[in-house]
Structures are given as C-alpha cells and as structure tokens.
Amino acid sequence: MSQSFDDISAQLRKRHRKSARLKWFSMGALGLAGLFLVLFFTDMLNKGLPAFQQAQIQVQVDYSEQASQIPLAAVEEEVRDLVSRGFLRTIPLRMKNDPELLGVQRSEWVLADGQVDQYLKGHANKLRDDARERVDRLAAEGRVALKFNTTFFTRGDSKMPELAGIMSAAVGTVMTMLVTLAIAFPIGVMTALYLEEFAPDNRLTQIIEININNLAAIPSILFGLLGLAIFINFFGVPRSTPLVGGMTLALMTLPVIIISTRTALRSVPDSIRHAAFGVGCSRWQVVRDHVLPLAMPGIMTGSIIGLAQAMGETAPLIIVGMVAFIPDVGASFTQAATVLPAQVFTWSGEPDRAFIEKTAGGILVLLTILIFLNATAVILRKKFERRW
Amino acid sequence: MNRILKNRTLKATAIAAAVIGVVGVAQARDQVRIVGSSTVYPFSSYVAEEFGATTDYPTPVIESTGSGGGLRLFCNGVGEGTPDITNASRRMKVSEFERCVENGVTDITEAFIGYDGIAFAQSIENDPMPVTREQIFLAVAAMVPQDGELVENPYTHWNQIDDSLPDREIVIVGPPTTSGTRDAFEELVLEAASESFSEAYGGEAYSDVRTDGGWVDGGENDNLIVQRLTQDTTAFGVFGYSFLEENSNVLIGSTIDGVEAGPEAIASGEYPVARSMFFYLKNQHGDDVPAMYEYADMFMSEQMIGDLGYLKGIGLIPADEQARAEAREQVANKVTLEKSDLE
C-alpha cells in the first residue's frame, strides 16, 4: 500500500493548516487576555487617579471662645458650608488639648467638603447653585484648589469621603501579614524539610502529601470558618484583630509555602548531600549548611507569592470579623483592624458616589503593592536561582 | 542532656504562657463593639466616627453582619468576645429574645432611631411606572393564583399582569435572603399583598420568590444593584431608599400603591414599604464598657437623629418629635426590654 505523492502532500497541507490554526487561536486567547487587562487598568486608572487629589480651601480660622463651643463660628459665613465637617468638629477637642490656640487667628488651607471636591472634579454632586457660584469664585481667586491628597495616605476610614484614607487598613495589612509570616513560614519550611529530608517514603507520608496538595486548592472561605471555630470560639482569640486574621491566613498560606519549599529542596542535587555526608556531616549539618542555603531563593519566592495571595484575600476575613468600619490606626495585634482588600470592599458598598474613586484608588494602591511583591519574587528567583 | 531537656521544657512553657497571655486580655474596655444590620451600618458608623473624633474614647468597631447575624452574635452570651450593641433594621423577634435570655443576656435596652424606606426603582431612561404591591407580588412570587388554583408563576411581561403596565420583560434585581432589606421586602410587600389572595394560599402569608429568572439576587451590596439598573434598562431594582436618593440622576423610583417614596411619606407610614430601625444595648456590659452609653446618647441626640440631624443627610428618615423623645428617654433610663414588648 503506497500512498501517492498527492495524497501525502494534501495530508501535509492539512496538518500545516491545523498547526497554523492552533497558533492563531492561542494568539487570539493571549490578545483577549491582554485586552481585558488593559480595559481593567484603564478603567481603574480613570476612576482611581482622581482619588489622589482632594479639594482644599483657604479660610481664615478664628480660634475664639465661641468656636470652642460652636465650631462653625471658627470660619467666615461665606465658606461655612464648603469646609469639611471633618475639620470643624475637631476644633473644640484641639482647643481643649492646646489652650494656647485660644485667640489665635490665622489663614489655613483646610479640607473642603466632599461635594466641593466632586464638583471641582466634574463629577455628580449635590451642591446648590449658589454654592457652586461661590466655589467658582473662590477657585478663580486661587482659594479653592485640588491638591495632593495626603489625607488618603495618613488617615483611616471615614464616612466623609474627603476624610477617608487607607492608613488604618494598610497598618492592619502589615500586622496581619507579620502574624501570617511568623506562623506560616517556620512551620511551612520545617514541615517541608521533614517530609523532604527526613521522612521515610511510606503510605503515611504519601497520604500527608496528598492532603497538603488538596489543602492548597480549598476555597479560602473554609479557612475563615475554621478560624472562627478554632481560634475565636475555642481558644478565645479576640475577634476582628490582626492576630486572629493572621492566624487564619497562615492556615491558608501554609500549603503554598510547604509545596514551594519542597520543590526548592528537591531542586538541590543529591550530589551536594552526598558530598557533605562523605566528609562526615550529620543530617542536621547537611540541611543547615548546604541544602537550606541553596534552596533559600526558591523558598523565599514561594513564601512571597503565598503572602501576596493572602494579602489579597477578603473572604476568610469576613468570617473572623476583619471587614469592619475601623477609622483608628491600630497599635497592637489584639486591637480591631481591617485590611486593604476589606477596605476596598467596604467602600464599594457606600451609597455616597464620591466613594467610587476611593474604591478605585484603594485598588490601585493594593495592585501596586502586589505587583511590587511579585516583582520581588521574580527578581529573587532570577538573581539567586542556580541551575545545576 | 537532662539540663538541655529542662531548658527546652522551660522555653516551651514560656511560649505557651505568652500565647495565653496575649489571648486572655482585657476585661474593662474603652472600645465599644457593635455588629448588625447592613442598613443601619452607614448611620451607626457615622455616629461611631463622630464619637471617636470628638471624644477621648477610641472609635467603636462596627461589623456589618445583617440584622439576623448581629442578633445571633449579640445573644451568644455575656462577656468578652460578644458584642455590646447590635443594630437591626427590624424589631428583635421573640425567638431571638428567648435565645438571648437562655444565654444569660437578660438586660437589654431597645433604641429606636428612625425609619428607612425600600425603593422600587428603574433606570431614568424609562417612563415612570406606578405599581401596586399586588402587581409586584404577582411579578415576584414563585406560585401565583390563577382561576382559583396555585400555578407556577407564568408571567414573563408586565402587561400580562395588568393591561395598564407596559409590554416589558419582568426582571427584578433585589437583595439575597441574608439581607435585612430582603426580609423587609418579603414582609411588607409579598406577605402583605398575598393577603389579598389569601384564599388561594389557604389563608397563610406567602413570600416565596420565583427562581426562574424573573427575580435576580443582586448581592448584599446595593451599589451593584444600582449599577446593574443603569446598564439593564428593562430591570427593576429593590434596595434601600438612601441609594435611590443618592443616585437620583440615573434612577427613578416607582410610586407604590400611588405613594411616591420620599422622607415625609416614609416617616408618616403612608409609603407602604418602610421600616423602623433599632439598636440594642447589652446593659450587662455597662460596667466594663462605659463608653457604650455615651455612644448611645450621642446616637439618640437631636444632632444625629433629629429633623436637622447629620444622619438625615445620609438617608435616615427621622421619626416625629414625640417618638424621638420617648426613644431617647428609654435609652437614658436603660429601660429593660421585656418579652411582652415584642409580642
């Protein structure tokens, strides 16, 4: 049975067509993924960039006796409804804590009301017509302006959009991640070390291995339920705190760290171990002085990726009470706190339209941190990874 | 060897002690812990922020857990780990009160803060469409009466329900079953309307919602429902009145039974889909957490829930003056809630 030349070349053409089609399909998929990414980023930048600017207004503040009772009296009538109440309401407490302020009259740049801010940015707002005219006039005089929004980075959550910031959430994230790292990193690395370097290969360790791989694929909210049942209800760890949040996220991060550490340990060639044993090192010395240092870049990469994953997580934290209204910047691990993604989630539910830009701004900050973390992981891998 | 072992045991004990020490902190607290309704949450957190900014106490922690979820946590018992205050967009149920008592939470004060309406709204691109509660019921219920028999909801377009309504597909986006808004919608619209067909349902109130696509669960977040309505102009949405007010440039509310949703109509009870909002104080925590009463007093003050109060600006519909005074009195005197009050 011989095939004619025509048959073969027809078949060949068909096969070439097939592979060309595959190529176009996969390029199309890539293009689509890229398109979604670009759309997402432009949307977020569009909505989020205004959040980094905030309207401020220059007013003559009169710290009079009357102002310590009725804060509205501290500023001229013309701008009373344009100044943020977040500034005004602090005047009595500030005057109480600083008696020298009494009698001082000075010109200050203070936060403008959120509606003024939205008006200046050209968004929907509830300013009345006469207030708009006043804002326009003040803007022409240079007494109302959009300035860099330091409040956004230095203050916690607020119901007033002009006062809302990510500081308390950022601090909460850092503390939660510290707890997560302090628990998940040593336990994860130790577990992997044992399984890889010490444990015999038997049914039991195989079952453990399968279970660890399964754990990595469990929906994160289940870890939240576990955290609620064990840490809060059984051990009595205080609710809504970075301590309980970090412990819960540590459960979630553990399998990721274990798996990546095992991979890193496995990539260290046996010849190194054999050589160390050959000169009389104990198993502990082999691991400590040779295997672990060589595997470290891989372990770090895995841990950072696991941490980045935990950082973007909200679902388990809802269950342990970390999605809450928390304006104060936390100072201890047992004080209530929230985290960045939870802050974004909270803002997305606010009725006030000015929170749309806060939400997008929060997302931008979170994305920047995550990109930075992932880039660090990539650089670590590229720089220190050794090929054998 | 022995010494090393001893040393290790010592270390282990020290670590264990440290952990327990961290865990078993704080009897008296400065920080008030609040849980409860997502509808009351915006008001409650507004007061909390004001409280934190204008007093030397730390800002109370508020979790939005839904009315039912909040009362469950609240009634878990007395002491550390249970909240001091819970918000509710409906009154406490007798069953919840009994559970509270069972767990030792016997001294509760009820604080009535005002009203909230539920809007039935659509994209502003449409013509206004007045509806009645019966019409909404027929559009939403899972089983409807037809020729004296209960059948699965056959209506796919509004004009099949009533000729006066437009030929428009029935799509209603509303909150999921975990939401207090949904509870109120079921009670005030569906159950109330089902009474006019009570024979068909054997005299019982009916509130099952259809699952064939006419009703869509829009998630707890009312903003998502609003967003959906601006994109899908055939759809109607069910959500808190404050979101309608805030989005009046893109949405338009329907009159229900001929009454337009608005502050006066809601406070007077004329608008049929309005509810009262409350919070509950656990008096047994009063000695350990004194700040909770100062917070409650601030909440009940005229500057918050009054006619010119701050909360009005973010969507609260104030009660009339006398009701406010009574509620304020009740909180100031820490009046203990009795089971008979709820029945």
Automatic annotation (TrEMBL), chain A:
Pfam families: BPD_transp_1, DUF3333
Keyword Lipid biosynthesis on entry: no
Location in the cell: Cell inner membrane; Cell membrane
Alphabetically ordered keywords of this record: Cell membrane, Membrane, Transmembrane, Transmembrane helix, Transport
GO terms under cellular component: plasma membrane
Any GO BP: phosphate ion transmembrane transport
SUPFAM superfamilies to which the protein is assigned, alphabetical: MetI-like
NCBIfam families assigned: 3a0107s02c (TIGR00974)
Name of the protein this chain belongs to: Phosphate transport system permease protein PstA
Family: Belongs to the binding-protein-dependent transport system permease family. CysTW subfamily.
MF GO annotations: phosphate transmembrane transporter activity
Domain of life: Bacteria
PROSITE patterns for this protein: ABC_TM1
Transmembrane segments: 21-41, 166-195, 215-237, 243-265, 317-340, 360-380
Domain ABC transmembrane type-1: from-to ranges: 170-376
Keyword Transcription regulation: no
Recorded topology in the membrane: Multi-pass membrane protein
The encoding gene: pstA
From TrEMBL, chain B:
Domain PBP: from-to ranges: 24-302
Keyword vocabulary terms for this entry: Signal
Pfam families registered for this protein in UniProt: PBP_like_2
Signal peptide, first to last residue: 1-28
Gene3D superfamilies named among the record's database cross-references: Periplasmic binding protein-like II
Keyword Transmembrane helix appears in the UniProt entry: no
Name this polypeptide is given: Phosphate-binding protein
Species: Billgrantia montanilacus
